[in-house]
Amino acid sequence: MKSNRYSRFFQIAHTFLYYRLYDLVPESHRTWYMALTHTLLFWYPKVSKQNSKAVNLRLALESLGPVWIKFGQMLSTRKDLLSESLSIELTKLQDQVPPFSSQVAIERIKQELNLSAIEDLFFEFDPTPIASASIAQVHSAKLQRENGDHQEVVIKVIRPGIEKQINADVALMMVMAQILNRVLAEAHRLRPVEVVEEYKKTIVAELNLVQEAANGIQLRRNFEQSDDLYIPQIFSEHCSKRVLVMERIYGIPVSDIAQLNAQGSDLKKLAERGVRVFFTQVFRDSFFHADMHPGNIFISRENPTDPKYIGIDFGIIGTLNSEDKRYLAENFVAFFNRDYLKVAELHVQSGWVPSHINVEQFEMAIRTVCEPIFNKPLADISFAQVLIGLFDTARQFEMQVQPQLVLLQKTLLYVEGLGRQLYPQLDLWETAKPFLEDWVNDQMGVKALFRTTKQNLPYWIEKAPQVPELFYGSLQSISRLPLMKKELIADYQILQQKQQRFFKRLTVFSISAIGVLLITLFADVSNDINWFAADVLLAALALLNAWKLRN
């Protein structure tokens, strides 16, 4: 096992040198030993100098395999950490790898679903996969239903051995991140260890198809009556940790603009619905699809003038608690109104920023970042970039990384990118502002008070009989306060007396012990019996006090 890890480490080191990744480190941050190592290895074969740094990084990640490709894809969404050129190049990473044997896939399906033969459950099974990615590959089939019908489905199968590869590569990533944390001056901003930990959570979640099935079922329930988003049916009774069976859908990839135009899709309505789907998931449901890249989003072929999204791949889900949700919505509304003091105060109130931070200075920092952005026409302003600027500024004021906000930021980048790809004139602010204002008013107005009262009323009625007893108990406690105060004072006085006796005994013990040492020295020199007698007495006194101290 260790030899495999060392072999992989040397492969990564070779990739680092071969693709000139040293050039990605700014000259001001290169340590003397990094520069010395680079100079000594001048002879090592390398790619052409004509390649840009961003291209070399993409090629290096592709050469290292699927785990690193997915890591690069995740990094491409972190525009707060990377330059624009790096971010754009990493978006080109393709998560397409050669398929594994269909016989291996069949054996895994049989094993996971406890089948003696694939035909026991599936009327038809296509051995040629319709998609093959780093984590899993997908086969089409027809599921035999109890009523005799055949349901078209897709079967997602986890790639054999991928768990071991992921664990090994993530462990190496963590070692490299910890090294960067020590040697890189900008580590406090780039937070390499936190980035790797975030990636680990993400990719481990994608390995558990039972969790993905549960996520898909929840999303389908949330949008069951929706005209905006369709979630395929998941057959949970035929799912396991490594196999997922889901209704097959036929849609147009959201990135295929030519095909959408050919069927006459209303792209403006589609872009605006994408924004509405996102905010509905975040603020109504507190449960949002956090991997909404173009490969996971399709458009229904039915009714192009009233188009509907189709979502797949539910391995990565984000959630927000009620406090985060409320503060985030209020932050957005404050931003729309350019009320930077309110934004700063909300960050402190939510606990995202420590309470000792100077709110006025924080407001000024936010204003400095945002005002130049707001001087542009609203349609040209990236909502996601404003959010990134806000979080980056907040980190300078000791804001800790909020994992739920990182996922939200990543998802918003996807949504805005897709929306503007479909309809370049999309004004995300105009689309989102009414939704958020209505939501905030609904949560904080008279309606919210009435709804909360209605929800809690059965609980209050249930507890009502206990109120008189609780009230009586509280009054009794209040009446006993003077007596309790006297008891506390008495206990404190006893404690003080015990402490005084302890310190007296400790002093006598210390003096006795020092006396024993000194008298022993004199007794050895003089051989006088009186000195030995005194020594024995002091030793006895020291032992007596030690025993009292112990008790």
From TrEMBL:
The chain crosses the membrane at residues 506-523, 529-547. The keyword Ribonucleoprotein does not apply. The keyword ATP-binding applies. Keywords: ATP-binding, Cell inner membrane, Cell membrane, Kinase, Membrane, Nucleotide-binding, Transferase, Transmembrane, Transmembrane helix, Ubiquinone, Ubiquinone biosynthesis. Its EC number is 2.7.-.-. It comes from the Bacteria. Its main location: membrane. Is probably a protein kinase regulator of UbiI activity which is involved in aerobic coenzyme Q (ubiquinone) biosynthesis. This is Probable protein kinase UbiB. It comes from Psychrosphaera ytuae.
